[in-house]
Amino acid sequence: MFRRNGTIPLRQNSLTGYTKDIMTEKDIKTLKDQSLKILTENRRTTDGHQYTVPSPDSYPYQWLWDSCFHAIALSHFSPEDAKKEMRALVSKQDSSGLIPHIIYWKKVPGVIDIKWGREGISSITQPPMLAYAVWNIYKKDGDKKFLEEMYTYLYHFYNYLLNERDPRHNHLVGIINPDESGEDDSPRFDIPLGLSEDQTSEENFGKRKELVEKNKTCNFDAPFCMKEFFWVKDVPFNAIFVKNLSLMGMIAEELNRMEEALYFRGRELRVADAMRDHMYEDGVFWSVMGEEYKKIYIKTWAIFSPLFAKLLSGEEAKELVERHLNDPSEFKTKYSVPTVAKEEKVYNPDGFWRGPVWVATNWFIYHGLCDYEFAEEAEQVREDTAKLLMESGFREHFNPETGAGQGAQNFTWGALIVDMFARDPNQKEWLY
């Protein structure tokens, strides 16, 4: 557990009126050292593949977007280890292009023991952060051979999402299970699952497990079968997709694949336009369900994810930040940023994805705020994230009102703080 070293100066936020701590260089070094320590301790090697488990006791396998987060953090310490993380992740890509969200390299009896109908892997995917991770590694050492090596896997994965998850070619990607969002119990999925506001965790898990069973009977056919049971066009998933399609264009251009670069940039624009056409209303992007694009009006951190993909104009972004991020009745809590607005009936600061702060969602929000030059808000999010890690350790999630650590221990997502401190919100350039 981290404790503060000496007196930390205080600074008043002129826009919001909130006072925040400022990290010392010693604090930042401690966080970096602890990040490297946990990434190293959670490292595993199986069948020649090196990967990182999110938490040795609670999550002893390899997860898709977790590994992308690991690679982003590792790239600041060892690009070579970051490359190994990504190679292990893509090694289980199937013939359709899908990359599974879990790889069970070494099965631990009784831990996340779900029968997916496939040997050693799951049958669903997760938010497509791979291009972002690969591009960040490439920026560190300029290894074009690695970029070329990864490109084929990425090309087929992003085309799988473009084709299999958008069967009507309306340019929005559908998810077939809440777990594909990375936010298993998020209240965004209560209505699509047919769950009440006062559901139990067991009821939620039971519904999601039902989808897995239906998935097996459908032989994992997303466009023509699974969409009949659960079909959500989720805002963060699609915003992350837009950002990564942009990076696919950059990667293709770097490899002198100009026609493919134009292809991915065109797809990026189409998805961005479709998000605005079907999801945007009254200054907010809402997730939608079914073929009728019925909006799911529940305020979660998802409303800020379009900042990460630069889907908003400057004025729209300003309104979003002022009306929602800085509102004490919504997302302005003692520790930024709760995953559900306080005014929502389902808000629970101790609930799984139903209120607590997660470092990864703060990471997305932080970079989005930096891109729109909301320096003070970005700094607030970063400082709050650092405080949570220092005061409560590297936990899975945190109570936004008390800062208490919750869920899994020795959880690797905290290492994303290294990437957050690599970018000064007051400058357009990255520090390192």
Describe the largest sheet: 3 strands, antiparallel
How much strand content do the residues show? 5-15%
What is the overall silhouette?
A: globular
User: Remind me, CATH topology of the domain at 42-298?
Assistant: Glycosyltransferase
- Name of the top-level CATH class of the domain at 42-298: Mainly Alpha
Q: Could you tell me the number of beta strands? A: 13
In the CATH hierarchy, what is the architecture of the domain at 42-298 at level 2? Alpha/alpha barrel
Radius of gyration: 20 Å
Average pLDDT across residues?
92
Q: Residue ranges: pLDDT <50 for 5 or more in a row?
A: 1-20
User: Main sheet: which strands, in order across?
Assistant: 7-10-11
State the helical fraction: 40-55%
Structural class: mainly alpha
Distance between the termini: 27 Å
SS element count, helices: 14
List the helices and strands and how they pair.
Layout: E1 10-12, E2 19-21, H1 25-41, E3 43-46, E4 49-52, E5 62-63, H2 64-74, H3 79-90, E6 102-103, H4 130-141, H5 144-164, H6 190-193, H7 201-217, E7 232-233, H8 235-254, H9 258-279, E8 280-281, E9 284-285, E10 288-289, E11 294-295, H10 305-308, H11 314-325, H12 359-371, H13 375-392, E12 397-398, E13 405-406, H14 416-421
Antiparallel strand pairs: 1-2, 3-4, 5-6, 7-10, 8-9, 10-11, 12-13
